[in-house]
Amino acid sequence: MVEAQSPFATVARKIGNPRLEKVLAQLAANIAMEAQSAERIPKRSEVRDNLKLLKGEARRFEKALSKISLLDISFSAIECLRVARKTARDVSEVCDKTLSNISVKRGAPKRPGRITCALIVIEAWDFARGGPPGANNPKAQKACEDYWRAYGGPPIGKEEPGNWRKTLKDALADRSALRRYIRDEIRFEAERRSSELSAMGVGGVRKRR
Predict the structure, then answer these.
(1) pLDDT tens track for 133-168
(2) Residues 58/91, Cβ–Cβ less than 8 Å
(3) Contacts by 60-66, CB closer than 8 A, 24 or more apart
(4) Structural domain boundaries, residue 68
(5) 51 and 132 inside one domain
(6) What SS3 state is found at 20?
(7) In a domain? residue 207
């Protein structure tokens, strides 16, 4: 019976170096982590609704405090009442300021993990072929689509590789610490794998564009 090939092995071959299979599988955990974290981040509309609710409650609290006469409370409680009124006003102001900084535009929903996916493909491609791919490279776009699906990502549109052009463009401009981490991991793991295979007498794989 023929053993089924890992989807990461297929991606590694398309990128240009079969020995990248293991590190591609390891780095896929970063995509999954980002996607899972995004699920816990509330939508902007939810944040705005919560802030409006808090502002309303703060104003009602402030109004209730204003109905209390200083003559009706003990002298020691006067300072507490003053602080409570100031706090209620501060909360309302914070809500107003935060609401002014949150865009009301819905915007196109961004699929979390896609930039990270593209970064891994770019750095693996750079290692395997001696240079990063262009955003319009159909083979690189296909590698991104296959890698996304290999990690377990949901279908994107009609699963056309061209859907990755914009993501690849954004990822190529990325200069984050995450990209440096991915680059270092790919080189370390791939070179370690090469050393292991060399010790076993297996020949190297030449880089190709």
Answers:
(1) 999 999 999 999 999 999 998 888 776 778 899 999
(2) yes
(3) 61/88, 62/88, 62/89, 62/92
(4) 44-101
(5) no
(6) helix
(7) no
